[in-house]
């Protein structure tokens, strides 16, 4: 059985410090019956601390390796187990394997050279112990110095995360409340619109009713005019009737007078007849006293003739007068009867028309009263609806203003926390960039200086090699190499964002794995077929957003590269391997027409 353990520790001391530890274990067991292999890389957590000491920078690297061996196993079992272990390692730890291979290569080269320097290292053991004790104190001081700021930065970051989470919850709650208020406002507006439509319909109905009322009034006026005309006609007919009655009375009086005259004439005739008879009697007496029969006969004949003549004249006059009176009064009576019948007919018609007009007028007045009542009721309903809608709108506006005020306060607080968090993120990014720059610088220094420089600079760099024998399951060898290189470098990163619409670029990940877009508008934005153009240190990268790229209102979405880690269920994967990493990055968001809608510019300057 053979076992190999490697430990790599890197420490940087300067304006900001980083400690990185990587431990890799590799064991191989062999026997006569079979062979098995186990490859288990293990990486401990990484911590980053930002501080500003007065010293330079330091890198310390340690590698431990041990070997154990046991009897060999069969070739077939060895192949199966090796294939299984290699497949598992390739699937899970490709990056760690590359690091281990790089360290193994470096370790192999260092081992070959360190064996030649073993003798000299023994001579310098005392100086090495002194340097170790000195380095330990410096390391402890540096660790103590940076640990406080590291703990403070962690605490601030945790507090910022907690504050951000609380504010996000508050913002989410406020947004839910605002959405509910908006829904209520929308429902109220819909109800108000319905009420307005109802008011419009009622106004139309009122206009129609007013039109009907005006028509009925005009008809009433026409009927009133006709009634006036009928009244005038009735008055004329009544006047004619009165005049005719007066004429009839006059004619009746005249008839009565004529009858009286006729009766008087008749009485006078009777009286005259009686008088004449009396005279005749007296004449007869005289005649009787006359002795002459001829005289008596003569006077008798003469008197009879005169009386007959008088009687005939009287009868003729009386007959003529009677005939004239009868014809006159018959004509007058016929005229009166004809006029009276016509007048009675016209009066009856006028009465019927008047009665009908009165009935229509009563109906119209009743209808007008009903329409006036309906109009008053509708106006009352309209006033009530307006007052209720105004009260609801005022309440909603008050609640909306209150929630907007609370939201503005939360947003201001969140902006302050976000600004503080952005500062921490900027410090973190600067620290990561410094670490990357230090790593490149140190690797370049290692490649340039070589082992000879390490040996010649023993006062600032040292190496140690220890070997011990162990039994079953223990390490066969243990190797530790330590290097210290001092240097200093600073990086300054600036960001600039702009947007021409509701969609803006909120954040670009420093590792090039994701880009976060934010929608500040009041409606959802569909970004299908939109394009993200990135210029990374002069190299252009293009990514077309998928069809499901929709950002809800007042929300944000994170677009990750292909195969990237999803931090949320709403993250959208794009067809691009990486968005790119560099010092100078320009990110643009364009619509399908090629118009630029948002931009994000990152500039990083290094100073040594």
UniProtKB/TrEMBL annotation:
Keywords linked to the UniProt accession: Coiled coil, Intermediate filament
BP-aspect Gene Ontology terms: heterochromatin formation; nuclear envelope organization; nuclear migration; nuclear pore localization; protein localization to nuclear envelope
Organism per entry: Urechis caupo (Innkeeper worm)
Residue ranges occupied by any IF rod domain in the UniProt entry: 96-449
Entry similarity comment: Belongs to the intermediate filament family.
Name assigned to this protein: Cytoplasmic intermediate filament protein
Compositional bias ranges of the Low complexity kind: 16-31
Domain named LTD: residues: 491-604
């Amino acid at each position: 059985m053979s076992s190999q353990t490697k430990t790599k520790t890197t420490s940087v001391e300067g304006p900001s410090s980083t400690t990185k530890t990587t431990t890799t274990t590799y064991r191989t067991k062999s026997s006569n019956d079979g062979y098995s292999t186990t490859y288990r890389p293990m990486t401990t957590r990484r911590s980053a601390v930002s501080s500003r000491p007065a010293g330079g920078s330091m890198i310390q690297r340690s590698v431990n390796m041990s070997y154990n061996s046991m009897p060999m196993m069969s070739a077939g079992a060895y192949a199966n187990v090796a294939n299984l272990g290699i497949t598992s390692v390739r699937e899970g730890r490709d990056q760690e394997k590359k690091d281990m291979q790089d360290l193994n290569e470096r370790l192999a080269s260092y081992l070959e050279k360190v064996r030649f320097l073993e003798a000299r290292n023994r001579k310098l053991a005392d100086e090495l112990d002194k340097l170790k004790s000195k380095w330990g104190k410096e390391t402890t001081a540096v660790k103590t110095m940076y640990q406080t700021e590291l703990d403070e930065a962690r605490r601030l970051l945790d507090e910022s995360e907690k504050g951000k989470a609380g504010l996000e919850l508050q913002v989410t709650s406020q947004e839910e409340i605002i959405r509910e208020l908006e829904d209520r406002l929308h429902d109220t507006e819909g109800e108000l619109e319905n009420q307005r439509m109802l008011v419009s319909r009622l106004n139309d109905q009122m206009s129609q009713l007013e039109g009907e009322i005006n028509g009925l009034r005009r008809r009433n006026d026409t009927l009133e005019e006709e009634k006036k005309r009928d009244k005038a006609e009735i008055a004329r007919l009544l006047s004619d009737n009165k005049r005719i009655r007066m004429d009839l009375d006059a004619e009746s009086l005249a008839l009565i007078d004529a009858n009286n005259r006729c009766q008087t004439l008749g009485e006078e005739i009777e009286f005259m007849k009686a008088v004449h008879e009396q005279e005749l009697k007296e004449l007869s007496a005289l005649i009787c006293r006359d002795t002459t029969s001829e005289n008596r006969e003569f006077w008798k004949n003469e008197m009879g003739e005169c009386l007959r003549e008088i009687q005939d004249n009287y009868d003729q006059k009386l007959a003529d007068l009677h005939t004239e009176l009868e014809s006159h009064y018959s004509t007058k009576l016929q005229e009166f009867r004809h006029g009276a019948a016509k007048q009675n007919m016209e009066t009856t018609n006028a009465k019927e028309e008047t009665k009908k007009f009165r009935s229509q007028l009563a109906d119209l007045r009743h209808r007008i009263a009903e329409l006036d009542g309906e109009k008053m009721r509708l106006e009352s309903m309209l006033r009530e609806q307006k007052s209720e809608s105004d009260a609801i709108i005022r309440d909603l506006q008050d609640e909306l203003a209150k929630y907007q005020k609370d939201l503005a306060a939360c947003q201001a607080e969140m902006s302050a926390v976000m600004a503080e968090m952005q500062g921490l993120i900027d410090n973190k990014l600067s620290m990561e960039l410094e670490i990357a720059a230090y790593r490149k610088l140190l690797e370049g220094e290692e490649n340039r200086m070589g082992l000879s420089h390490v040996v010649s600079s023993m006062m600032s760099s040292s190496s140690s090699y220890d070997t011990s024998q162990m039994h079953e399951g223990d390490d066969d060898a243990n190797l530790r190499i330590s290097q210290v290189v001092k240097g200093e470098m600073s990086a300054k990163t600036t960001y600039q964002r702009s947007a021409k619409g509701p969609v803006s670029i909120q954040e670009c990940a420093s590792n090039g794995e994701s880009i976060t877009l934010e929608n500040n508008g009041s409606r959802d934005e569909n970004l299908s077929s939109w394009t993200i153009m990135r210029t990374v240190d002069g190299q252009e990268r293009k990514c077309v957003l998928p069809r499901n790229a929709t950002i809800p209102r007042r929300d944000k979405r994170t677009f990750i590269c292909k195969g990237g880690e999803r931090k949320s269920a709403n993250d959208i994967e794009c067809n691009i391997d990486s968005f790119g990493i560099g010092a100078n990055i320009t990110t643009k968001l364009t619509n399908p027409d090629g118009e630029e809608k948002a931009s994000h510019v990152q500039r990083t300057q290094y100073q040594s």
